[in-house]
Specification:
Blueprint (H helix, E strand, L loop, with lengths): L8 H9 L19 E6 L7 H16 L4 E6 L7 H10 L4 E5 H4 L18 H8 L2 H11 L4 E2 L4 E5 L1 E4 L14 E3 L4 H9 L3 E3 L6 H6 L5 E4 L1 H6 L8 E3 L5 E8 L1 H4 L4 H35 L3 E3 L3 H10 L2 H6 L4 H11 L4
Parallel strand pairs: 1-2, 1-3, 7-8, 7-9, 10-12
Antiparallel strand pairs: 3-11, 4-11, 5-11, 6-9, 6-10
Subcellular location: Cell envelope
Keywords: Receptor, Signal, Transport
InterPro entries: DctP_fam (IPR018389), TAT_signal (IPR006311), TRAP_DctP (IPR004682), TRAP_DctP_sf (IPR038404)
């Protein structure tokens, strides 16, 4: 659900895009004495992805700042199971920390995914003040209620865009009868159904073949995914819709967290929040780089009429339907951040 890229080429691309600002993961030696606290941290990103690299750097800072009292052990690339399995593990205490996608959190507590509502944010300029401000605080509080402690600064997982084979997508009318592969998320499927498209949820690994054989007309994903899976080879157009954004929240098992003295809690949380800020910068640079690469490869980018898409969703009842899935407090928090939706 959250995994963007699984190809080795990403590691080379991100290093080039950032001018070498992040180094390859270092191999750290164990502290001279056994750690008092070991935090098993699991996530779904590949080892070459900024999520993992920045987490490893944070782990070293934490070890040094605590004099080896805290050891952050990192398990990337779904080593400890699928995302639902890792979420179950952090809730049970089998692992202590997990990078939780908002779309997955929504399956347990709806308000945790309210930021995934269609066309809520036009750009990162609109997004980060809300996610790092009152809306993000509300989302974290909603997860606290079900026993998931989250840190203040989430990682970036990118905005989603629409690619098409034959015609560019400018308005909702262009999606009428359009066969599109979507992520297997109820809210994303609902978006495109309300826009008049015909949705299917073939696996990400089968999407290239589905596009190539014209089983579907297009797909929707963040730009790095479009690049990594080479969808540009079988698609001609890319509408920069930014229709959904999602991120990863650093979440910890509350019972374990309470065992850490306050000074160690501060060291861990502040360093993981710093890792998230660095990861956001890395991904922003890479998004710029990959957009240029896709354009050079022949994928034609266009800016659609976002207002028309919002209006179509209002008229088709999308916002009214999903408003019932969220609390009034959550809906109010979202509209205070982005303006009136329904």
């Amino acid at each position: 659900m959250g995994k963007l890229i699984s190809r080795r080429v990403f590691n080379r691309s991100i290093l080039a895009a950032t001018g070498g600002a992040i180094s390859a993961p270092a191999i750290f030696t164990s502290p001279a004495r056994a750690a008092e606290f070991t935090i098993r941290f699991a996530h779904n990103a590949p080892v070459g992805f900024p999520t993992h690299i920045r987490a490893q750097q944070a782990a070293e800072r934490i070890k040094q700042a605590t004099g080896g009292r805290v050891n952050l052990l990192i398990f990337p690339n779904n080593q400890l199971g699928s995302d639902p399995e890792m979420l179950s593990q952090v809730r049970s205490g089998a692992i202590q920390m997990y990078a939780l996608p908002g779309l997955l959190a929504q399956s347990i507590v709806p308000d945790a995914g309210i930021h995934c509502l269609a066309f809520s944010f036009k750009s990162y300029d609109d997004l980060w003040p809300a996610i790092d401000g009152p809306l993000g605080a509300f989302i974290r509080a909603s997860m606290d209620k079900i026993g998931i402690k989250t840190f203040a600064t989430p990682l970036d997982n990118g905005f989603r865009q629409i690619t098409s084979r034959d015609k560019p997508i400018f308005t909702p009318a262009d999606l009428a009868g359009f066969k599109i592969r979507t992520a297997p998320s109820p809210i994303i499927i609902s978006i495109f159904e309300h826009l008049g498209a015909a949705t299917t949820t073939v696996s990400i690994k089968e999407t290239y073949a589905a596009l190539q054989t014209k089983l579907v007309d297009g797909e929707e994903n963040p730009l790095p995914t479009i690049d990594a899976f080479k969808f540009y080879e079988v698609q001609k157009n890319c509408a920069l819709t930014n229709h959904v954004w999602d991120g990863f929240w650093f979440c910890v098992n509350p019972a374990y967290w309470e065992k850490l003295p306050p000074d160690l809690q501060h060291v861990v949380e502040s360093n993981m929040n710093e890792a998230a800020k660095q990861q956001r910068q890395d991904l922003a640079l890479f998004n710029e780089s990959v957009a240029k690469k896709l354009a050079a490869a022949g994928l034609k980018m266009n800016q659609p009429d976002i207002g028309a898409f919002r209006q179509k969703l209002r008229e088709s009842g999308f916002y009214d339907k999903w408003r019932k899935s969220f609390s009034e407090q959550g809906w109010t928090a979202l509209e205070q951040a982005v303006g009136k939706l329904g």
